[in-house]
Structures are given as C-alpha cells and as structure tokens.
Amino acid sequence: MIQQNRGREAGVSRQQKLQFSLNHNLVHDDTEQPANVPAQNPVSTGLKLSYDDDEPNSSVSSASGSINASASVIMSLGDNIKTEMERQKKEFDQYLKTQEETWARGVRDIKQRHMVSLLSAVEKNVGTKLQEKDIELDNINRKNRELVERMKHVTAEVQNWCYRAKCNESLVNTLKTNLQQAMQSAEQGKEGMGDNELDDAASYIEPNNRLSNIPSGSGKCTSTKKGIICKVCKLKEVSVLLMPCRHLCLCKDCEGLVSVCPICQLMTTASVEVFLS
Predict the structure, then answer these.
(1) Which CATH architecture describes the domain 172-273?
(2) Residue 83 burial (10 A CB sphere; 0-12, 13-18, 19+)
(3) Do 202 and 247 meet the contact criterion of CB atoms below 8 Å apart?
(4) What is the pLDDT of residues 108-153, one digit of tens each?
(5) CA–CA distances in Å: residue 21 to residues 15, 73, 158
(6) d(CA 211, CA 188)
(7) Which residues is 229 bridged to in the sheet?
(8) Residues of the chain scoring pLDDT < 70
(9) Measuring CA to CA, how many Å separate 65 from each of 60, 72, 139?
C-alpha cells in the first residue's frame, strides 16, 4: 500500500514537472522569437503586401505546433500514467487478495486449533465421566454380588429353620405319643394289669427293648418306677430326651455328665428336657 502511494506521488510529480517544463518552453519561445528574427524593412510590392503581414501567421503556426507537440506529449504521458495506475491497481488488488487469503487461512487455522482444543477437553471430560461411571458400576456389581450371597445365606438359614421347625414338630408329636404311652403304662402298672412295656417310652429307636416279665402284686409298681429312672445314677426319674436317638433315659443332673446315649451308645448332639408330671 505504501509502495502504491509512493508510485502515484512520483507519477504526479513527474507529470507536474513535465507540464511546467512545457509551459516554460512555450513562454521562452514566445519571448525570444522577436529578438532572434532580425528587423526587416517593409518592401513595397505595389500590392500593399510586406513581410510584416506574414509575421502574425508564422507566430500562430509556431504556437500551434508547440501546442500540438505539448498535447501529444501530455497524451503520451497520460497514457503512461494510466498504464502505471492500472498496473498499480492490479498489484494492489493482488496484494489485497493475498492478504485476504492469508487472513482466511489464519482464521481457519485458529478455528481448527480451537476445535481441536475443544474436542480434546470434551474427550477428557467424557473419559473422566466414563471412568467414574465404570467405578460406580463396579461398586453396584459388587453390592449385587454381596446381596446375592446374602440372599443365598438367608435362604439357607430359612430352609434350616424350616427343617428345624419340622424336626421340632415331629419331636413334639413323638414326645406326646411317648408321654401318653408312658402315662398309660404307669397307670396299668399301678392297677396291676398284665405286663408293662416301659422301654417303648424310654427308647424311640428300639421299640423291642422291653423289660422282663414283671411279677404281680406290689412288685409291678416297683418295676414300673425302676423303668423310668435315670440310666446313669439309677436314682432320679428321667427327664431328658437325647438327640438324635430320641432316648428318654437321663435325669437333669446327669445330662452334662455323658456325651453318648447310655442305651444305644450313639453320640448325642442335643437334649430336650421333658416334664412327665
């Protein structure tokens, strides 16, 4: 842009100098021409013509030639100036186009860098969120596994309690039956009616374990009492039912002294206190 302005100023300056030179030459020619032409005496021709009559015509012709030359020079100079201005205009347009392309390329680069930076930030943020979600998902899966294990454990406990309830129910029914049989046997022994099968009440697993024939009279009552006494101390009445053999054969005091059933020699796992009276 600065070069174009300088070129234009140089062209205008050259045009002004040329115009000033032409004007100076014209003025100089007009002032010097009478001095250069020697004074001539008028010559009479009889036709009233003289050399002085031709002098204005020659001055006009010389001035016209100078003007025509100046005009041609000015026109040539104007064409040169016009050509130079067109060239400068083309250069200026090319410069503007180049600058426009440079600015457009710079703007595209800036936009591209901004987009890359934005995408990188978004990708980083999304990666962080995904990592947090993965950790949260792992925690949820771990809690689900813990809940599944807990449900399995609770289900097993429920089944165990159901099994225990059924076993206890069966045990209660068995105890009721044994107690009824024991009470019936005791009443029959007191009344002195026939043989008594006391071991049916004392042993659930060994129903064939019977006492020997009991003599009549008062001896029947004594044998009945001996059949329901403790198998260890032989003194107190039985009140403890052993598990799992279900033998009613121990008193409360002897319960903690033995670990096997004194009747079947089976290892005991639990015991239940029974109240016969």
Answers:
(1) 2-Layer Sandwich (3.30)
(2) exposed
(3) yes
(4) 999 999 999 999 999 999 999 999 999 999 999 999 999 999 999 9
(5) 10, 12, 127
(6) 15
(7) 237
(8) 1-69, 71, 186-227, 276-277
(9) 9, 10, 109
